[in-house]
Sequence to fold (374 residues):
Amino acid sequence: MNILVIGGGPAGLFFSIIAKRAVPAATIEVREQNPEGVTYGWGVAFSESAAGALRPAAPDVIDALTAGIRHDRMVLSLDGADVPVQVGRSHLNARWSLLATLERIAVEAGVRIEHESEAAVTESELARWDLVLGADGVNSRTREHFAEHFLPSVELGSNWLAWYGTRKPYPPSIILRNSEYGVLMAHASGFSAEMSNFTVEVGQETFDRLGFADLAEDESRALCERLFADSLAGAPLRSNHSPWFRTKFVSCARWTHRNLALIGDALHTVHPSVGSGTRFAMRDAVYLTEALAGARWDVEVGLKEFERVRKPVADAFQAAAKRSIAWYEGLPSRTITHPTKFAIEYLMRTGRVSYRDFRRENRDVVLGYERDLR
Ligand SMILES: Cc1cc2nc3c(=O)[nH]c(=O)nc-3n(C[C@H](O)[C@H](O)[C@H](O)COP(=O)(O)OP(=O)(O)OC[C@H]3O[C@@H](n4cnc5c(N)ncnc54)[C@H](O)[C@@H]3O)c2cc1C
Fold:
């Protein structure tokens, strides 16, 4: 069996590992456009529940991805007032370490990885492979090339984000500032002993008032340092291909075409604010491998089964992500003044945590808030 995987991100690499282990005789080739060790962004979170769901597929891989920094608490900070809360455990990795780990294990399993190889499959080339996977991320050219078959929908978010890093150690934190320019938000989280994420998010009006559209990447970074100076306490922000961007919410009406399937962000996205895109992508890989194995690697049958079984689960997860996006995109037009109310709203925003759950985990926080309301 010959398999071509376009894109060496978490989806493509994890699929390659588990598929090669399932069918050692298969030839699996991953084509990745970036040079080895080069990627965008900083650290990505991996929840304990995500690790639990993925571990049976490749225990050694998940052990390697959960061996680093972990957090059990987060801080919601409104205008300098911090509310620490208990949350489910999350594991963090630098994105480049996560990819290096996956790549090392894939190569050990016998997968062939070609870097600086920009793939663009056409209809006629599909016939050269038994299976082709478009795992080429949110801006997937595979999805665009075969758009008439996948029928994608791509919705642009209304907020602007820039993904920076900083040396200041942060627990997972949401930092909200009501400023003269409007609401300023940052998502921070330590992902190694030395580095934290610091993703800045603002609504369109604040983006315009601050003139970010006319600033170079370095000027934007310097302005964000000043806007969040009280939180950063002098620590500089750092860039890693960190331009302003608006999130794309991707979904596809159809998931496969002939022997071609999309997985990961190429197929469907969640949102950075739910911190789950990596595991969402890796779960696609597991569902796909299981569906193909269940069909004894009959690609046509396996791909249909993949869509039938995975789609309802993925749709439910995307619906939760949509609620998170709506909450974030609503923030710029609101004024939140109570730090605990902010914390409660934040944790309940996707509908997956109830007030009762939050109250059980964070009794003191909630009792203080309920006292304030009386
Ligand atoms: C600000 C921000 C914060 C985030 N934080 C988190 C987090 O905390 N936790 C989490 O789980 N997720 C997070 N995510 C989401 C996560 O990064 C993605 O959901 C995840 O990487 C998707 O994996 P993927 O393999 O589908 O795509 P990608 O990781 O994007 O990989 C796709 C790969 O394909 C390659 N490629 C593209 N086109 C071609 C081509 N034509 N030929 C060859 N190669 C190609 C790209 O170079 C890339 O390496 C965050 C995202 C953002 C933007």
User: Anything to note?
Assistant: The pocket of flavin-adenine dinucleotide is lined by residues 6-12, 31-34, 41, 44-45, 118-120, 135-137, 141, 161, 163, 199, 264-266, 272, 275-279, 281 (CB under 6 Å).
